Amino acid sequence: MDGVFNENDISHIVDADKAHVWHHLTQHKAFETGDPRIILEGKGMRVWDQKGKEYLDAVSGGVWTVNVGYGRESIAKAVYDQLIKLCYFAQSAGSIPGSLFSEKLISKMPGMSRVYYCNSGSEANEKVFKMVRQIAHKKYGGKKHKILFRDRDYHGGTLATMSAGGQEERVAQYGPLAPGFVKVPHCMEYRAQWDLSGEAYGQRAADAIEEVILAEGPETVGAICLEPVTAGGGVITPPPGYWERVQEICKKYDVLLHIDEVVCGIGRTGTWFGYQQYGIKPDFVTMAKGVASGYAAIACMVTTEEVFDMFKDDASDPMNYFRDISTFGGCAAGPAAALENMRIIEDENLLDNCTAMGERMMGNLEALMEKHKVIGDVRGKGLFLGAELVADRGTKEAVDEKLVGQVVAECGAQGVLIGATNRSIPGLNNVLCFSPALIATADDIDQITDTVDRALTKAFG
């Protein structure tokens, strides 16, 4: 770490943070007797805190974002050059990076054609919800307005996206929630709701969606919002047969398919988008985190020309277009950073590296599962993996959340930052989460899993 701050500077920063910053997902009572962690610098896969401690970051910025690693001067330069030329103009007009990135992005998404820029993943999902509601009014007299969502999935922190959130602890105390959102069962084979496995379970989990549609009335259901791989709900990969049947059901009942790629998008699973792992043909795709690897704020809602045309079929009606604005969707830095981010992924073959290193990490986790009985299941796709901790493999009883926290903390003490499900599923916040940057090497992967090995041994023997 470059020595930029002296001890007095650091002390002032910590004091200012404690006095004025409200951290995300944090109980601040602890800061009455201790200090928050301040991250001062990052390079490649490593970050350094205010004490000079080095960490290998196995969660890409804490929330699955920094896909190409820290310290990318070419992205910083692209942002700098763009800000000097044009920092911002409302997205009612175009910009050079906005036009070029949309072209580049669509080239990676066969079947899609239109990009709507906005501020965050939550907001991108809200755009889809608004479009679905507007389509319902335009085509179905307002009736086909309901939006289905899946148990354990997460789609954001706004009131509408929480209403479409399948994680009970995320939405607790924030009601009443918005009406018109209906939950369907999860597709987590490890905790199967039916005595089935493999493709039979996958099809049954999808059939449960049809049952909900029929119960609600197909004429009232406009869309379903799903993650390709459930992220914060436990890193849940869909079972075989699931997505094929989901698409059949959507087509049968004229239900628009919305894929939330906020976590999985831009290489995380080894393809540009997670849905491309499963042959899905979506009507909407939303993305944020990895789009610019955190170097600038950007989120996108992408859709088909067929959907786009629904909003320009009658120019004589002044209410017939998508009447929406996203203030910081007009920031030119976002698409400028995103263009360079994609160039890096292509030129450095990071999709292939993600697949190879993901296979290595999965193998390492499976070896840990053989060694530690506390690991009940390992799962994931590419460099997005999870290990579920259980007190008993037979009953699948989850370990106490405090013990999960101890494992995370011990990894941090040993210089590796990992994640875990947190305030999501009551009694089931028991999954260790891993999402190292796509630049990870074999040595990085081994360091992560070796550290987890030692932390598990210390916590459970």
Describe this protein's structure.
- This protein has 461 residues and is of the alpha/beta class.
- It is built from 14 helices and 16 strands.
- The chain has helices spanning 7-20, 60-64, 73-85, 96-107, 121-140, 159-163, 168-171, 198-216, 242-252, 305-309, 333-347, 350-371, 401-413, 442-460, and strands spanning 39-43, 46-49, 54-57, 114-118, 146-150, 181-184, 221-226, 256-260, 284-287, 299-303, 375-381, 384-392, 397-398, 416-417, 419-420, 431-434.
- Strands 4-10-9-8-7-5-6 form a seven-stranded mixed β-sheet, with helices on both faces.
- β7 (221-226), α9 and β8 form a beta-alpha-beta unit.
- α13 (401-413) crosses α14 (442-460).
- The longest helix is centred in the C-terminal third of the chain and has 22 residues, at 350-371.
- The two termini are 35 Å apart.
- 49% of the residues are buried.
- The mean pLDDT is 96.
- It comes from Pseudodonghicola xiamenensis.
- Pfam families: Aminotran_3.
- This is Aspartate aminotransferase family protein.
- GO terms for molecular function: pyridoxal phosphate binding; transaminase activity.
